[in-house]
Write a structure and sequence with these properties.
homotetramer; mainly beta; 2 helices; 13 strands; about 270 residues; 13-stranded mixed sheet
Amino acid sequence: MSEMAGYFYPRTASGRSSLLPAPPWYYSGDLLTVEYRTDPARVRRLLPPPLEPAPDDPGAVALIWADWQSCGASGEELLDPVRAQYRECFAVVRCRFEDTVYSRCVFIWVDTDFALARGLVQGYPKKLGSIHQTRPHPFGRAAPRIAPGGTFAGTLSASGRRLAQAVVTLREESASSGFVNAHPMAHHRWMPSVEKGAPDALSELIASGTASVEAGQAWCGDATLQLFESPTEELADLEVREIIAGYYRQVGVTWDGGTVLASALWPR
Amino acid sequence: MSEMAGYFYPRTASGRSSLLPAPPWYYSGDLLTVEYRTDPARVRRLLPPPLEPAPDDPGAVALIWADWQSCGASGEELLDPVRAQYRECFAVVRCRFEDTVYSRCVFIWVDTDFALARGLVQGYPKKLGSIHQTRPHPFGRAAPRIAPGGTFAGTLSASGRRLAQAVVTLREESASSGFVNAHPMAHHRWMPSVEKGAPDALSELIASGTASVEAGQAWCGDATLQLFESPTEELADLEVREIIAGYYRQVGVTWDGGTVLASALWPR
Amino acid sequence: MSEMAGYFYPRTASGRSSLLPAPPWYYSGDLLTVEYRTDPARVRRLLPPPLEPAPDDPGAVALIWADWQSCGASGEELLDPVRAQYRECFAVVRCRFEDTVYSRCVFIWVDTDFALARGLVQGYPKKLGSIHQTRPHPFGRAAPRIAPGGTFAGTLSASGRRLAQAVVTLREESASSGFVNAHPMAHHRWMPSVEKGAPDALSELIASGTASVEAGQAWCGDATLQLFESPTEELADLEVREIIAGYYRQVGVTWDGGTVLASALWPR
Amino acid sequence: MSEMAGYFYPRTASGRSSLLPAPPWYYSGDLLTVEYRTDPARVRRLLPPPLEPAPDDPGAVALIWADWQSCGASGEELLDPVRAQYRECFAVVRCRFEDTVYSRCVFIWVDTDFALARGLVQGYPKKLGSIHQTRPHPFGRAAPRIAPGGTFAGTLSASGRRLAQAVVTLREESASSGFVNAHPMAHHRWMPSVEKGAPDALSELIASGTASVEAGQAWCGDATLQLFESPTEELADLEVREIIAGYYRQVGVTWDGGTVLASALWPR
């Protein structure tokens, strides 16, 4: 297929229509995190074989809001920022595979097509939603500062229903912005067969992580988090039993590919 | 992976979060079509191996607007219509594979996540856009009638740029609503590897068509069509050299799976 | 100001930028209605002087979903349907002014700017929301028919929170599609002064109704309706105590101006 | 009307549904500006009586992108940021009234209802659009820095058509972020009568300006600007003849009311 160019579809002779450029992908943005504990059985239910629960604190969950600007190597998206800016909210747990602890995104919502497509590559099960996060700003009364007392809210809705809302009030500088999302991701990439009743056409377990991270000072503080029921969502199953902490951090990251950990091939 | 349910991601124990139910998928909607001819070389450039141009009228293109309501077998989406309604605009050409003429969607835009996900299954290379189509209505002055003189417009925009606009004025009843999109589709399903430089993890040629169609009277008439340039789109490469006709038709269709025509497996 | 043209802003020499053309305004669309009774005191609280409650059934409310295509006298919007199509959901009660019973829209959400602007003219207090309504279609399994058993849902969300959802199952043909929204509207048009502490710069009571109506057969049937709380909305205050009926009807209407019933002028 | 509370509609007993709180209104955000000159006759055409052109540089125009977070006195919107965040793009010229030079916004697009409503109060003729602006960020490769060489783009679309796109490359610190939008605004507030053929029900000339401003360092640099035609917009009439400069500045502002300069009352 050498005549068709483009990392993603639609592939054409020029590759110009491709929804995504090839990696590396760059991201600059603000992360608002609430870490909490749920019933470990709820986490376990979300881990398909061959994944096992994390050896300690298996009920730990991070719900993370991110307000991103992103681009490929050319950076051209930054000059047409509708192609660069998006927001996401994602729930992360931890798991174990072959003696290594991984993070795993179990639910995630974004608000653009290019972000959803990156999820297909990286194994994030993205759906579209409406995500908002208070933005810091150095001037005026209509924004918190990244300082003690700075209050940041995150909200998530999908299909017109509020799914989650969090409020984090910064208290002090912190060594990190949490532990749940601190490992490379262990994600599945599944694609059903087009043939009814056939096994998945694609079924892989992959590892995916950032190639590089540049970050500002992390802040931690108190947090509240409410999760709401929806007929088409199960985020609220990860019910909040105990808040661990809230965090805020600005980061710049690079993603430049992952690794296949295990794969099923279905003969034809 | 028997503990995880759900036709599509995110897969969970209950399957309730799945972005799509398993087929069959039902659609009821209105189709506005402009068929025209472009330079056959432009069509050829969009056909990757092993596809060949159609033996006759290889430059024929259909640009189709569809205003859909859709659901799975349970029909529950119809009671929460944000999950059922979407619009799309797609460009179709014809091609040949192993002596059979197929249709092939080369570019397509939709406005919901569930529609984009169905595209991943069916090989339609969907991106998000803003699509509008004049709706018929039996009452009042703010709608055409499905009758001679009824005038229908279709517009397509993506990333804030107008990509296409068409106007069709119905003239007479027609035996069909065109010939370009009249064959089963021959589509590729591609998914890049998560590993940089590796071959595609999924690379299939599939055939996909409707399991059943119920349709109203087709109408044809005169049509105008304008295509506009965009730095991230190549629809305008299929430049309009000669309008063939415009069509309008209401349809109900069922999609219930396709067939793999050819597949590449990449050993690990 | 004769050099500036345009019915609405922005006014220019040509008038071409005006968000609205001058009336008459034409609408073709589908109306889904649930009529019910709430505590009459809740309705009364929403009626500012000089309005009084309706003499009978003062607690009657209609929640109406409308899926519209609309245009001005030139009809040009129908050829660029992003300018013509919108959806709304509105709550109507009845009241009395000077011995005449009027309808009055107390809450309303729309999804376009031109619809919001028409509300400013007609006294509908429009905010933006996400509104969906099951659409009938003659073909396929993904749509109800306008016939006994046809089931239609309406949903309303604003700021990512679901505010209302209704389901109506058609049972029989009906002489009307309800009584609550059957009178001309008695609406206030208020605009605060730009000067802090000053009285409203505009304060009128107006009567507004359709100049002509063309309608299909009305249908009635059973209905369910749920209203949900929101920190910025009070629709749920009109709590559902007793469902009266659900209705479905397709209509074409013309609006061609209203009448000022009472006005306050603030001298400068 | 003392029983109804709420600065804006819908007015209720509690005032909780009001689309806007009473001023003061606070804003924290980022402003990207391109100042340029057009044919002074084009500016003059946009100035209704009693406004006259500015005495010098009457063809000067500023096209400004703003990425805002905003709230009322309670600040509650910051905890539900869908109520606080919006973007706008607006064209400003200068004019003279009674020997004072004012700025005047002639065209403006926003992306939320609360922003559009504030425009009704402040005399900004707001329509809905899709507005994007490159955001600075201190980390990573997917964002410019507020420093020499930092490149910022602004784009504006409405109804699916691109109306404007600008690119500003910062060169040096600047004493200001331009001169065109540096004066209090002289705006008209118009509302047509509900009665056909009657004069406007509201017709005022108001002055409106910020009560306080807190700002970061202004930066200036080179700029490019393209304006595009649309059948419903006239921004492109202010054609770019000569770029003056591009600017970037972060600001916090307070708006706390304006003044009526002239008013027409229509007797009934």
